[in-house]
Prior knowledge:
By secondary structure, this protein is an alpha+beta fold. The chain is about 25% helix and about 10% strand.
Amino acid sequence: MEKIVLYQRINKLCVRCGKLLDRKGIYCTECNEISNIGDKDS
Length: 42
């Protein structure tokens, strides 16, 4: 569980779909939205 979280932080994965983020880990090409790990809006 901890390894997964660490992996997400290193590789900047999208919080919604889990895909790798583009543009320096800010933009998600899968969701086509700005989706940052540290910024969750719900």
